[in-house]
Design goal:
Rossmann fold; 2 domains; 299 residues; 24% strand; elongated; 9 helices; 14 strands; Universal stress protein; 3-stranded antiparallel β-sheet; UspA; alpha/beta
């Protein structure tokens, strides 16, 4: 698995490196990338030189025990360059540092974060300004903070996947968001906060007072995350099926049906295909020709 680390010299870049180091392991490699503006017609040697010097500092900061590569890319904007690299590498996560002007151990959003969060399809780690972890400390604990009526199942699944990927033995802690409480919690080295977010505003509201990195899991489609199904029975065909239509027709004969229940479906993927049902076969005596067809099949 590969994680992309967006790096630029300065406090924000160093905070991103410190946060990314938490996730480094034998199974996770880091691609530390500096994005410079595209210049048509000729290469801007001063920008390339500055990027190379900055990546040299990044390599010294992380050290040789971290599995990482260091590259420079050009793009029309930093966010566009990061997204293109994530797609190219099929990366599992992006790591960003705080924008300039942030308070120490708090996250200040910049233009890159603002452009990236609404567009990315993978979790994004946001490191607060001035964040630093001990050199050998790795991810130890995930704290899932939520501000909805109940925890989001897709976000819980992402947290569990992250825990398995990094071999965590500690259970994931789940807490209701309280800005004052999160800000006064005692956070240990190696701990991160994890939140689900549909927008930049959601993320900033929850993470503004937290002094540790925050993993923002994108939540894209609330409409498809909960769907009310119609479970039905067709008297004519003696089969059962499910459909999103509140008054479903039989998938087999197209005739009327009797709705037996309306279960709530939780899904973060495509809506269910109404043809994907498990038919309940009727006894042969109720279906004309069934016994004769069975005898022909046997011969």
């Amino acid at each position: 698995m590969n994680y992309v680390v967006a790096y630029s010299p300065g406090n924000g870049g160093r905070a991103a490196l410190a946060a990314a180091r938490l996730f480094s392991s034998a199974d996770v490699s880091l691609t530390v990338c500096t994005i410079i503006p595209e210049v048509e017609g000729y290469p801007n040697t001063s920008l390339w030189r500055a990027a190379a010097e900055g990546l040299g500092e990044a390599k010294s900061f992380l050290g040789d025990e971290v599995n990482a590569v260091y590259i420079t890319r050009t793009a029309s904007s930093p966010a566009e360059g990061i997204l293109a690299l994530v797609a190219e590498l099929d990366a599992g996560m992006v790591v960003l540092g705080a924008g300039s002007g942030g308070s120490i151990r708090r996250f200040s959003t910049g233009s890159v974060t603002g452009d990236l969060l609404p567009a990315t399809q993978v979790p994004t780690v946001l490191a607060p300004c001035g964040y630093h972890s001990e050199h050998r400390v790795r991810l130890r604990q995930i704290v899932y903070a939520y501000d909805e009526p109940r925890p989001s199942q897709p976000v819980v699944a992402s947290a569990a996947q992250l825990a398995v990927r990094h071999g965590l033995t500690q259970p994931i802690l789940v807490t209701v968001v309280d800005g004052d409480r999160l800000g006064t919690m005692h956070w240990e080295q190696g701990e991160v906060q994890l939140i689900g977010s549909t927008s930049r505003t959601d993320a900033m509201k929850i993470m503004c007072n937290v002094p540790v990195p925050t993993v923002v899991v994108p939540i894209r489609d609330h409409a498809s995350s909960e769907q009310r199904l119609s479970a039905y029975h067709c008297i004519t065909c003696e089969i059962e099926g499910r459909d999103l239509d509140p008054e479903p027709a039989c998938w087999s004969c197209g005739g009327p049906t009797v709705v037996t229940s309306r279960p709530l479906l939780h899904t973060s993927g495509p809506l269910p295909d109404k043809s994907k049902v498990t038919p309940r076969k009727a006894p042969a005596a109720n279906v004309p020709g069934a016994a004769e067809a069975s005898r022909r099949g046997a011969t």
